[in-house]
What does this fold into?
Amino acid sequence: MVNSLTTQQTATQNLNLPSDQNASGRTLGSEEIALLAEAIHSGTLTSTKGTFVKALEKQFAELLGVKYAYACSSGSAAVHTAIAAIDPEPGDEIITTSITDMGALTPILYQGAIPRFADVDPMTWNVTAQTIAECLSDRTKAIIVTHLFGNPCNMTEIMELANSRGIPVIEDSAQAFLAKHDSQYTGTIGKVGCFSLQQGKHITTGEGGLVTTNDEALARRLFLYINKAFGYGDPKPDHYFIALNYRMCELQGAVALAQLSKLKGIVERRQIAAAKLTQKLQGLPGITTPHIDPRNVHVYWKYCLQVDSSVITNGAVGLAKKLKEEKGIFSAPRYIQKPAFQCEIFEKQRTFGNSRFPFTLAQNEALDYTPALFPGTFEGLEKVLVLPWNEAYTDEHIDYIADAIHGCAAQLCC
It folds into this structure.
């Protein structure tokens, strides 16, 4: 009876946190409904004839201060479009991060190129100029940097390295809307920027993406690749090269346009809440709050802690388990359970039929996934605890999370 009563009391004390997987943690509302209704009443749902996607592209470019922005069907489509615009030869290498979503990696293979994995800084989980430099070869065609969790890579050093070799940089800013490095928005520093509008991103259309550039020639290829390489608007349009239909429809464009008007407020609320949590967790034994370079502006797609297993029993995994059991807080230890290169697609080279293409064209060094080459990756994944995060958090939610971490960490202190 005592145990039952204790469980009941604990359950009633738990606070339900807003979730970005439903309306409680999203900003979707009357503005999106109004524009959706307008799109539907127009009867034009294709972006080749409509106005909403074009307006989204124009306004997004203006917000970031870039010359060109194009909408597409997903964040993965954005990355694929960027890689296709760079146009690698089969067997070319594209340097990327060991901690990323598979949707940012398979486009490399689809374009016949080889992902060359760079290690990360275990404090930020981002690639660095040093880890990228260790991967450069005579086959390097491009570098993809991922601004993980909304915390920018240190782009000054990365761009100096890339520019010295004449290598284009693609920025994966799927998690980094309005993040900045040295006063520049991420997605505007490299040759091409890629953004995602998936359900859990800062703004959402369920699925959707955007690509940005200041390069006129690349802009042309980005536009064409999204449109099956058909030259809409050309005097004698044709399908100029192999490409896909990655267009965004007008329904998504209408929702995205309404969401875009809310973006600055969304980012500001996330930053304010994050600052409060950081202050409340300062000095807690075994817990390290986000590491941010002074040149960077973090936009907190997620709020990540480092958990020291020598202080907290079972480290991030143990703390996550305790937070869920005692406080109903669902967090993600390790973020991804293993580095990307340990997934079957890479370990077993499962691509097109039994061909193993394009791995058959790879240099041995590009396929060397020996753990000793990735110390930052394994250390970073071991320590990271990803907390749920969105713009609907109030002071009450932050206090609840902070108190829960303090209490659970104290119970697990070695």
Confidence is low (pLDDT under 50) at residues 1-11. DSSP finds 14 helices and 14 strands in the chain.
